[in-house]
Amino acid sequence: MILIRILLCILAPTRLGAVTTNQEFFRIMSQRFLNRKTFTLGSIGAAALAAALAAPSVLAQQKVLNIYSARHYQTDQALYDAFAKANNVKINRVDTDDAGVLQRLKAEGSASPADVVLLVDASRLAKADADGLFAQIKSPVLEKAIPAQYRDSSTANGTTWYGFSTRARVIVYNKTKVKPADVDSYEKLASAANKGKVCTRSGSHPYNLSLFSTMVEHIGADKTQAVLQGMVGNMARAPKGGDTDQIKAVASGECGVALTNSYYLARMMRSSNPADRAVVEKVGVVFPNQSSWGTHMNIAGGAVAKHSKNKDLAQKFLEYLASPQAQRYFADGNNEWPVANGVQIDNAALKAMTGGKAFKSETIPVSVVGKNQVKVQQMLDRVGYK
């Protein structure tokens, strides 16, 4: 500050010893600049510096957070805006699918500008972690908020990734063609009662890989492969499309039963489109395996990028995602269930889907997905589940 004022005295020499405040200093310098008939380099420099002195907020550099995200949900914008405003942060986003995020991180290597990585499936989180794309962090905030089953196993050096929302892998069925009792477990999709009725997206899609990987933990590899073989034999048509396509195919009668993530159905339930409402009226929903190990729950989660240049800010953003405010964004915006302990939500579609009652969900750590997914992919190849 002293050096700036000395420089100004040199550029616009006048007695300024009586000036005691920056504001008064700026007022005098600005007036002298305006009174000059000739704009010299000195006067211009003095005015510019004095203006900067009077507006320190201009000099303060805004922090930047670079997020690579596979969360392709428009409603997430409110999440980013709230954090940016509260922390004076400019957020840059790269939006693509999970595979695209991982490919980009690998290609960029240590030169990657990514600070935060957001993915929408446990299998992809596990794959990215195995590929060394995440940094380990130590966060008492996250350890307290996120249940152990929804985060990576911790080590002495910290934890790599955390889940921030959950979605159930549910079964939808055609109300006129299928009895709920015939599809109340994942295993029953392989039963003779569902011959020619089953539809799914690709068996190798991460959502299905995650389900089948946890199934290995529940019933073992041999029984899981038998279920997959039975499902292939019961297919109404070859796997294709996404989860929304499966719901529509069940409603149209092309399929009798299908697998979908819960938020796809909830989205249609909340839609104002008459066509979506008509689809919802024709399908029922089952939360499978309530009498055994519970419904499979997948996660969307995040991590600090391995080569982040702003690890403290990146960790702060992850901690923000575990806050009640952000957790309610997940529930209200994308029809997901919050992960953080003690967060209450009020989503009409989710309540309607469950009949307003709690449902039994599996309790095994989602981190087992990474351990089993190669084995499961080999099973899928053996039984011809495309």
What does this structure look like?
- The protein has helices at 2-11, 22-35, 41-54, 56-59, 77-87, 98-108, 122-130, 140-145, 206-219, 221-233, 243-252, 262-269, 274-282, 311-321, 324-334, 348-354, 368-383, and strands at residues 63-69, 89-95, 116-119, 134-135, 161-174, 198-199, 257-261, 283-286, 297-305, 337-338.
- It has 386 residues and is an alpha/beta fold.
- The protein folds into 3 domains: 2-59, no CATH class; 63-165 and 298-347, Periplasmic binding protein-like II (D-Maltodextrin-Binding Protein, domain 2, 3-Layer(aba) Sandwich); 167-296 and 366-383, Periplasmic binding protein-like II (D-Maltodextrin-Binding Protein, domain 2, 3-Layer(aba) Sandwich), CATH 3.40.190.
- It is globular, with a radius of gyration of 28 Å.
- The model is unreliable at 1-59 (pLDDT under 50).
